[in-house]
Specification:
The chain has helices spanning 19-32, 40-46, 51-61, 69-81, 94-103, 116-125, 149-158, 172-181, 209-221; strands spanning 6-9, 16-17, 89-90, 108-111, 134-136, 165-169, 184-188, 204-206. The protein has 222 residues and is of the alpha/beta class. It is elongated, with a radius of gyration of 17 Å. 45% of the residues are buried.
């Protein structure tokens, strides 16, 4: 196995808990359409595949008209991008873990299906932007995870080969994208997984972000 030279992170459900802000923005959209609100449990089951899928799932679940989906997605993005960091928080230990990984000399990247603008807004609001050498959003390329292209684009920016990289995510599309890109994959056991974590096919499961730093530090010392 090649020595680890870079780590790529998913955002929602891996580095940050963004469900409350996503719920609030979706509910503003639903209210505008005369539809019932969704709760936090519902929105967590809908997160992960980009804004269009989130809106599609929310509108479908509340009996709305999917024929206007492109218009609804555009409206949602207008609402959300101004509210993306109101309640969103980093998970425990994230900032310290990122600082520790950087101290080991590892370049880091974010690859997310969230739009790039909202991603940068969140990273900056939480003082996390400086940790990352590359950020690829869901609208950066024509393809999104589980397609490997976003991961490969981030690795190209970092100048690191796939076999020397690790993807850390919380959902099936993170592991699937990593596998397709030839990258190792870890999955966190929190977040917004649509499947039991043991079924994601990750090389390893981690219960808290500081566990990653411990694993990488031990591996580097071996």
């Amino acid at each position: 196995m090649s020595p680890l030279k870079a780590i790529i992170f998913d955002l929602d459900g891996t580095l940050v808990d963004s469900a409350r802000d996503l719920m609030d923005a979706v509910n503003i959209l639903l209210a505008h359409e005369g539809l019932r609100p969704i709760d936090l449990v519902e929105v967590k089951s809908m997160i992960g595949d980009g804004a269009a899928k989130l809106v599609e799932r929310a509108v479908s679940a509340t009996g709305g008209d999917l024929s206007r989906l492109p218009t609804l997605v555009a409206h949602f993005l207008q609402i959300y991008e101004g509210k993306a960091s109101h309640h969103t928080e980093a998970y425990p230990g994230v900032a310290d873990t990122l600082a520790g990984l950087r101290s080991l000399g590892l370049p880091l990247a974010v690859v997310t299906n969230k739009p790039y603008g909202a991603t940068i807004a969140i990273l900056e609001a939480l003082d996390l932007r400086a940790f990352f050498d590359a950020v690829v959003g869901g609208d950066t390329l024509p393809e999104r995870k589980p397609h490997p292209a976003p991961i490969l684009a981030a690795l190209n920016q970092l100048g690191v080969a796939p076999e020397a990289a690790l993807m850390v995510g919380d959902n099936y599309h993170d592991v699937q994208a990593a596998r397709s890109a030839g990258v190792r994959a870890f999955a966190v056991t929190y977040g917004y997984s649509h499947k039991p974590h043991a079924e994601l096919g990750a090389d390893r499961l981690i219960d808290a972000m500081p566990d990653l730093l411990s694993i990488v530090t031990k591996t580097a010392a071996a």
